[in-house]
Each structure stands twice: as structure tokens, then as C-alpha cells.
Amino acid sequence: MINFIAIENAANGASIALLQEINDEQTIKYAAHHEEGKNAEQVLPMIDELLRQANLSKKDLHGIVFSQGPGGFTGLRVACGLAQGLALGLNLPIIPVSSLEASAVLSQSLIEDGFLVVALDARMQEVYLAVYQITNGSLVETPVLAPTLMQAQDVIPWIQQQLPVWCLLYRKVIKTVSIGVTGNAVQAYPDAFILPSTQWVAGTTTWANADTLVQIGYAKFKKGFQAAVEDLAPLYLRDKVAFTTEERESGMGGNPKIALPVQDEVTQQLAELANTLMLKDYWIRPLKISDLPAVMAIEEKAHLTPWTEGMFMAAFMHIHYHSWALVNADNDVLAYAVQLFDPDVVNLMTIAVVPCLQGQGLGTLLLTWLECYIASQPKPPYQQLLEVRVSNTSALALYQRFGYEQIGIRKRYYDTADGGKEDALVLQKQIKPSVKDMV
């Protein structure tokens, strides 16, 4: 038998849940207290009562889950302190769970594929905000947007601005992507959460309780995750709730306003790229096996020594290859590229534009994406290497404009039309990564 306890004290009330697993079957006992201002004194008695109902003592527990936040300042401190105390005193693993992730789990079935916006009421017309990716109806744990604090009125417009960038990075189609919106802030600030189109879907408007937390935490534990007790701290997002005396005397009134998140250089470049693509009715998506007939037709015309279909198939099967297509509104492939991510460098293996559209900027758009994709990765490599024929002046001009520098030459590397050989210039560029782990 496995016994896990969860403490949720980030919202206005407090709740406790006890998960018991016997022969892979789970049961959950739950208790809640909703008298505001008395959460701290009720948590331990509720734990004792749940354990009593299950004929257990604290020594029978196998793990502690708690809501790390964001949420109410005092409640988070109480939950974290109690969880740490129990974990240390009983030598138990401890698993923190974000309030935002827990609320996301409540609505993960809202959409099949797309993004889930979670907004929890932070009072003062502000919300705790995070965005998660939903793939095949399941929540991806790593957030697209890490927990942040934002004014309620700014959420929907800001998400609309970021959506094209996220669609590029997470391989979604901007015209058809689904966006779910969930969390109790939707109910608290209805005028700020008017959904702009049918692509947006409203989910549950409740704050996740301990019964949800304990399931999430136990699932994390079974995957091998647990936190170091001494390193745990509540997740606070608001660092200023009032102006100083000096600020008030200078004319500042009301509450301090939360600024929108600052976009780093990579995110700005991605936003510009996405806007340009949308204006031209283009998009960039992963290359598919079904694209191969169109790709082979372009490859035969664009390259004297083209890749074979087998080479493309091998790239599809290899996890370190990333293949991309620039497509029009009809999903026709206009340009494509294949990257190989080695431990120390990204190799641009092939890139081509349909011949009748060469010179119209498609290569620039695709190369911009390839570099942004590298820059957005959470770890190196952050440099791209490629070879180009010495006679390919148009390609050389493009790479030089992007800042690629020659680091070598490969003698007689390419075949020529007359049966001879031609040198290849080896070019490389160091790419500045995003200042964040992920956009």
C-alpha cells in the first residue's frame, strides 16, 4: 500500500487529500476548509482526521505533495513549512506542484492539440498566468510560458501577440490552433476574458484542490521526481503591492501596475518572422513524408547533386534531424531545409527554394527560422555550419548577409555539370541564444 498526502493552501481556503494505492488501484479521501483567515490552524487537524478515517498514522505516509504557488502569501508559507516539517521529521519524499499546473490538469481535456492558458485570480485586477501545450489531449509539463503576474485586462491581447511565435516554436498551424482558457480569473474578471474567436475555448473556472494536487504529485513521484527539502520555497510572483512613501509623495497613487513581460531579442525576431509569414500567407512547419514528391521535384531542379528520397527518409527516422517546410495557404511546399543537431554544432544539410520563386525572399525567411529555432533551444549547440559551392554567388551573398564566416574549404567537394569537381566553402555562424530557457 502507498499513502500520499497533499496540502493545498494557496487559494482562499485550504484542502487536504490522501491518496492510497493498493494493487495499482487508487482511492482518494478529501477534506476542505473554506473559512478565510483560519487556514493555518485547520491544516494539521484535517490531516489528522483523514489519517484517522483511513486507520493510518503519519508514520504510514510515503510522500508529501504541496501547492508551491503562486497564491496567497501566508497560505503558501504555511503549506511549504508544514510539508517541509513532515518530510524532514518522517524522512519522506516531497513533491511541489504549481497551482497553475494543477489548474491546467483540470482542463487538459478541453482541447486535443494547442495551448492552454491558465489564469488564477491574484486580486487587485491581476492574475497569475501560465501557458501549457496540449498534445494529443495530454498536458506537456514544461510550460510554454512560465508562471508570471499580469494585469487581467492585458492577458488576452498579449496572448494573441505571442500566439504566432508559439505556433512556430511548437509546430502548430496558426489558422487552426486551439486555445483553451481556464482558471478562476476567468470568472473573477469576465470583461477581461472575452474570447476573441471560435478557436478559443473556455474551460473550468475553479482553483485546483488537494485531490488534484495529490494525483499530479504522485504521478511525478512515480516518474522519479522529488525535490530537495532544504531547497524548497514558495513561488511568489508579486514583489510589490504598494508604493513607498516617497513614491506616493511624488504623485503616484493606487496600486503599482504590473508591466508586460519583456521580450528578448530572439522572441522579437520570431514575432517579426511570424508576422511576415502571415502577411504573405506563408507558414513554416515540420516537413512530412507526404511532402516528399513535391520536395523531390524541387530537389532535382535546385541541386546538381540532389538528395535521394532515401536520404530524406533517413532524416525523418533520425531524432537528431529536424526537417522544415515553408508552405503557402494551400499547404504547397515552396522551400525546405534539413538540420542535423550534433553535440557541438548544427549542420545545415540541405536547403532549397522552388526555382520559380528564387530571389523573392523565401530563403531569407527559412534561414531566419533555422537560426531562431537554434537560438530558442534550452541548451547548446548554438552555432550552425554549412557548405556552399564557390560558384553559388546568390547563396553566398545570403549567408554573408546573415553573418556567416568562412572557416574552411573542401577541395573538389561538389560535382559540376561538365563532369568536373568544384570546391565547397565551409561557413559557420555563432548564434546568440535566447536569454530564457524557452519562450
From TrEMBL:
<dbReference type="GO" id="GO:0008080">
    <property type="term" value="F:N-acetyltransferase activity"/>
</dbReference>
<dbReference type="InterPro" id="IPR000905">
    <property type="entry name" value="Gcp-like_dom"/>
</dbReference>
<dbReference type="Pfam" id="PF00583">
    <property type="entry name" value="Acetyltransf_1"/>
</dbReference>
<dbReference type="InterPro" id="IPR000182">
    <property type="entry name" value="GNAT_dom"/>
</dbReference>
<dbReference type="GO" id="GO:0005829">
    <property type="term" value="C:cytosol"/>
</dbReference>
<protein>
    <submittedName>
        <fullName>tRNA (Adenosine(37)-N6)-threonylcarbamoyltransferase complex dimerization subunit type 1 TsaB</fullName>
    </submittedName>
</protein>
<feature type="domain" description="N-acetyltransferase">
    <location>
        <begin position="282"/>
        <end position="432"/>
    </location>
</feature>
<dbReference type="InterPro" id="IPR043129">
    <property type="entry name" value="ATPase_NBD"/>
</dbReference>
<keyword id="KW-0808">Transferase</keyword>
<dbReference type="InterPro" id="IPR016181">
    <property type="entry name" value="Acyl_CoA_acyltransferase"/>
</dbReference>
<dbReference type="Pfam" id="PF00814">
    <property type="entry name" value="TsaD"/>
</dbReference>
<dbReference type="InterPro" id="IPR006464">
    <property type="entry name" value="AcTrfase_RimI/Ard1"/>
</dbReference>
<dbReference type="InterPro" id="IPR022496">
    <property type="entry name" value="T6A_TsaB"/>
</dbReference>
<dbReference type="GO" id="GO:0002949">
    <property type="term" value="P:tRNA threonylcarbamoyladenosine modification"/>
</dbReference>
